């Protein structure tokens, strides 16, 4: 445990940031998995709705710097291809 006040504050702020970052990334991954589940089931309408949600979550993660812009583009491209192949 740190002794200096600023180091204590840094520990607290890092814990908060870690929680937020984990939330953003996990919600993105969950949205992607839900979309893939709908594609596997063959539900076109539900899949397109889940695709929009997944793309929003990917864009949010990219804009806040949680994932790289190229990874975001790659994920969106793969998901769109899966949707179009249905």
Give the SSE string: HHH
Give the overall shape, derived from the CA principal axes. Answer: elongated
**What ranges have pLDDT less than 50 throughout 5 or more consecutive residues?**
none
Name the quaternary structure.
Answer: single chain
CATH architecture assignment: Up-down Bundle
The secondary-structure class comes to mainly alpha
| CATH fold title | Methane Monooxygenase Hydroxylase, Chain G, domain 1
**Count of extended strands:** 0
Radius of gyration: 17 Å
Annotated CATH homologous superfamily: Ribosomal protein S20
- How many individual helices? 3
Helix content: over 70%
Biggest beta sheet attributes: none
**Roughly what fraction of the amino acids lie in strands?**
under 5%
Q: Report mean pLDDT, rounded to a whole number.
A: 95
What does this protein structure show overall?
- The protein is mostly helical and 86 residues long.
- The chain has one domain (5-85): Ribosomal protein S20 (Methane Monooxygenase Hydroxylase, Chain G, domain 1), CATH 1.20.58.
- It is 86% helix and 0% strand.
- The radius of gyration is 17 Å and the shape is elongated.
Keywords:
single chain; 3 helices; 86 residues; mainly alpha; elongated; Methane Monooxygenase Hydroxylase, Chain G, domain 1
Summarize the structure.
With 86 residues, the chain is mostly helical. 86% of the residues lie in helices and 0% in strands.
Q: Topology, pairings included?
A:
Layout: H1 5-41, H2 44-63, H3 69-85
